[in-house]
Specification:
This protein is α+β, with helices and mostly antiparallel strands and about 240 residues long. It has one domain: Hypothetical Protein Pfu-838710-001 (Beta Barrel), CATH 2.40.320.10. The chain contains 6 helices and 11 strands. It has an 8-stranded antiparallel beta barrel. It has a two-stranded antiparallel ribbon with strand order 4-7. The longest helix is centred in the middle third of the chain and has 10 residues.
Length: about 240
């Protein structure tokens, strides 16, 4: 069971740099991290991460990300463990990006049950019952749930504790409808694996030692963009 202390609070900005593997095995990805000169080791247990993303009806956040707008925001509900059923200790997050750097504001939500009877009115009840600040409720009024995704994550930390890698795999996506939502539109687990290097801005001068030894290039990847385009292929231009 997750606790609120397991969620990363980012009041100050950090860099998050992604490396994408499309066909390599999970073992290959893990070995690449552990053989890095930063002497990375496993931290935490692997866990399943689930996100419900919110966007405007005309997908403003999707387009901002797709076209690489420097300053953009992503709104999501995140929780760990089972994707469906009773969702305990969910967190509402506003993740803000400023180029390669990002930070996020997090707000705890009441527990809820996610099933095929969950509709727009249930979202409203959840938000109103969760004692959210007025400015958050106002922002949510102009957004709707657009995508559910789930994936496994492993965590690694450098010997000096200045850098962290996360390794995401077994990505699954579910289309979300406001009403009559049965989560029947699902993608199969994708072979894509995402390695993300995370570190404080003050350590940017040291990161070359870490990133230069990776046999893959820095890349752009958004799980939200990938999921939206799976169910809306006409947008993938």
């Amino acid at each position: 069971m997750s606790t609120s202390s397991e969620y990363t609070v980012l009041e100050t900005a950090r860099f998050e740099r992604k490396f994408v593997l499309e066909n390599q095995s999970l073992a290959f990805a893990e070995n690449m991290i552990k053989m890095n000169c930063g002497a990375f080791r496993d931290i935490y247990k692997k866990r399943t991460i689930n996100n419900i993303y919110f966007d405007t009806p005309n997908l403003t956040n999707y387009y901002d990300n797709h076209f690489g707008k420097s300053n953009r925001t992503k709104i999501r509900i995140r929780w760990y463990g089972d994707t469906f059923g009773e969702i305990k200790r969910p967190i509402l997050e506003f993740k803000m990006k400023f180029g390669a750097a990002g930070k996020k504001k997090s707000f705890p939500l009441k527990s809820f049950t996610l099933n095929d009877r969950f509709t727009k009115s249930d979202w409203l009840k959840l938000f109103n019952a969760s004692d959210l600040p007025e400015f958050v409720l106002l922002e949510l009024k102009s957004n709707i749930p657009t995508l559910l995704n789930s994936y496994e994550r492993k965590y690694f930390q450098s010997f000096d504790a200045l850098f962290r890698f996360t390794l995401d795999y077994n990505l699954s996506f579910f289309n979300i409808r406001l009403n009559n939502n049965r989560f029947l539109e699902k993608s199969f687990k994708e072979p894509t694996k995402i390695i993300e290097l995370k570190y404080d801005l003050k350590n940017d001068r040291l990161v070359k030692n870490i990133s230069s030894t990776l046999p893959i290039r820095l890349n752009k990847f958004s799980k939200y963009v990938r999921g939206i385009e799976i169910f809306n292929p006409h947008l993938a231009v």
